Amino acid sequence: MDLSVTIAGVHFKNPVMTASGTFGSGKEFEPFIDLNELGGIVVKGVAYEPWMGNAPPRIAESYGGMLNAVGLQNPGIEAFIKDDIPFLRQYNTNIIVNIAGRTIDEYCRVAERLQTADVDMIELNISCPNIKHGGVAFGTDPDMAEKITYAVKKVSKQPLIVKLSPNVTDITEIAKAVESGGADAVSLINTLLGMKIDIHKRQPVLANKVGGLSGPAIKPIAVRMVYQVTKAIKLPVIGLGGISTGEDAIEFLLAGATGIAVGTANLIRPTATMEVLKGIKQYMKQYEVKDMGELIGVV
């Protein structure tokens, strides 16, 4: 059976990737799994300068998932290029760099710095708050989403994936906007905004008050949005949101995703990506599926 897929001209040996922010740069997982088995590693968000992130507590469990308000803590682009790319290049897998910023200029500076780096793709995190527009996330306004996609694509020779926020009324409008802006692919969904309150202390559990909900609880929403987006635009889609098993991944593929990413499950079981990959192979064997083209978007 052939598990390979092509996304925006980049060949993947299989559709299984990691979701940004749940896998670091792979170093923590290397003792548990063979990183060579992954189709791609999407690294934790990287900004131009080091970001401290939000004050703790910034992670909380919730029914069917978790809330996080880590705030994209990262050591900055120079540390990433020096420490993480050489580590990742030891392995036969695609490197996808998730980039973050607070202004369009900040995003462009990260993308420009990556032009001389050995990476395969860039993933644009447009869920960051735009500080020049009162903290509204770039990804919740179609005009802003198109503008930032256009600006980053202009400086990026690597294929550009835009990661869509689900915290909108109609995600297809944002998908169409980034397609117009020149995106090469989209990934979805990012986390849904949620909140947890400690009833004994009578205050929010997270210092940030609200955080991003991820995990199995959001999977039906993610599958629905992937299905809608694949019908609305012509770009390849990477599906994520609550994938824990091979069966979960198959749902996203049938809904139209060309690739999938495993996120929160990594934090529960370090071997989750390998279990998902094994589950996909078992499904293909059970139903005598010869290649991914027989599955992608058949629903």
Biggest β-sheet strands, sense, barrel: 8 strands, parallel
Task: Determine Rg (CA atoms, Å).
Answer: 18 Å
Whole-number count of domains: 1
Briefly note the CATH topology name.
TIM Barrel
CATH level-4 homologous superfamily: Aldolase class I
- Alpha-beta content class: alpha/beta
Could you tell me the strand content as a percent range? Answer: 15-25%
Helix content: 25-40%
What is the CATH C level class, in words? Answer: Alpha Beta
Number of strands: 18
Number of helices: 8
Tags for this entry?
single chain, 299 residues, alpha/beta, TIM Barrel, four-stranded antiparallel beta sheet, 21% strand
Describe the structure.
The protein is an alpha/beta fold and 299 residues long. The protein has one domain (5-55, 66-193, 213-294): TIM Barrel (Alpha-Beta Barrel), CATH 3.20.20. 30% of the residues lie in helices and 21% in strands. The protein has eight helices and 18 strands. The protein has an eight-stranded parallel beta sheet. A four-stranded antiparallel beta sheet has the order 5-6-16-13, with no helix packed on it. A two-stranded antiparallel sheet has the order 1-2. The protein is globular, with a radius of gyration of 18 Å. The mean pLDDT is 96.
